[in-house]
Amino acid sequence: MSAPAYDELVAAWKGLRLRRPGLTVREVATVGSTRTLLIAESVPEGGIGNARATIAIAAGVHGDEPAGPWALLSLVADGLLDPSYAYRMWPCTNPSGYRLGTRENEDGVDINRSFTRGGATPEARAIVTANRDRKFALSLDLHEDYEADGFYAYEPLVDGAAPLGEFVIRSVEDAAFPIQDLHGAFDVVYPPAGGMRAPNIEHGRVITDAQAEALFLGGLPYNLFLLRNAAKRAMTFESPRKLAWNDRIAIHRVAVTSAIERLGRL
């Protein structure tokens, strides 16, 4: 199955406003371009003051990874997000790339390497500006990997914060989905270079050094930007693009709900 069109995603999100109490959906402008980004927010019954904390969830920063945006939509549509939290959600942070089916935006730039110094792309600048003065207990970013045969996750090291990854990986595995073998020749996009410390590789999980990762990539990804400025924890999920469309969406649904479940137990 091919991914539905971006306009269908927008229409579906806007349609949810009538069905999900506490959900707001709007479009924000990007400075220096005509592109807009969807932003959705959800608060518990009684308002933001009743939230345990706020969780950030983003998807679609690479336009050729479409299952993440539809997984996020389905999580909200089906009421699967823990209602005791508030949520700030970016349903698709690269609309032009989604439309083109490309990793980069229509300017040929990888948005997920553009969150340095206030944002080097219109999309990153819009997100940085919107998130100013916001704090998150957790940031989740939904991706796909065309080389992978199974699910895996990146989890940067955070001093004093209990990890979530083992529980997430076990939950995906218990749901009968494959976990990627990260050993051997598999590319985790994080080779040791220039004296930087290599990541720890565990079952389905790449445990990174946030400082070294930013140096290697040459520009902050979305999740590292939030981790440095606003989020206590961050995880990046990678579903295998080789699998069937519904399986790719289901994997993200399990990963997101299990990460939030684990957070709630800490």
Our measurement of the CA-to-CA distance between the termini, rounded to an integer number of angstroms, reads 39 Å
Any idea what the shape is? globular
Mean pLDDT: 91
As a percent range, the share of strand residues is: 15-25%
Tally of separate domains: 1
Radius of gyration over all CA atoms, rounded: 17 Å
CATH superfamily membership, which one? Zn peptidases
Helix content: 25-40%
Count every helix, treating DSSP H or I runs of 4 or more residues as helices.
8
CATH architecture: 3-Layer(aba) Sandwich
Largest sheet: 9 strands, mixed
Low-confidence stretches: none
Enumerate the strands of the largest sheet in spatial order, edge to edge or round the barrel.
1-2-4-3-5-9-6-8-7
CATH third-tier fold name: Aminopeptidase
Element pattern in H and E: HEEEHEHHEEHEEHHEH
CATH class: Alpha Beta
Structural class comes to alpha/beta
* Overall strand count: 9
Question: Secondary-structure map with pairings?
Answer:
Layout: H1 6-16, E1 23-29, E2 36-42, E3 54-59, H2 67-77, E4 86-90, H3 95-100, H4 122-130, E5 138-145, E6 152-156, H5 165-174, E7 200-202, E8 205-208, H6 210-217, H7 222-229, E9 234-240, H8 245-265
Parallel strand pairs: 3-4, 3-5, 5-9, 6-8
Antiparallel strand pairs: 1-2, 2-4, 6-9, 7-8
Please supply descriptive tags for the structure shown above.
single chain, 266 residues, alpha/beta, Aminopeptidase, nine-stranded mixed beta sheet, 8 helices, 9 strands
Describe this structure in words.
- The N and C termini lie far apart (39 Å).
- With 266 residues, the protein is α/β, with parallel strands linked by helices.
- The protein is 32% helix and 20% strand.
- It has helices spanning 6-16, 67-77, 95-100, 122-130, 165-174, 210-217, 222-229, 245-265; strands at residues 23-29, 36-42, 54-59, 86-90, 138-145, 152-156, 200-202, 205-208, 234-240.
- The relative contact order is 0.18.
- It contains 8 helices and 9 strands.
- The protein has one domain (6-265): Aminopeptidase (3-Layer(aba) Sandwich), CATH 3.40.630.10.
- Strands 1-2-4-3-5-9-6-8-7 form a 9-stranded mixed beta sheet, with helices on both faces.
- The mean pLDDT is 91.
- The chain is globular and about 45 Å long.
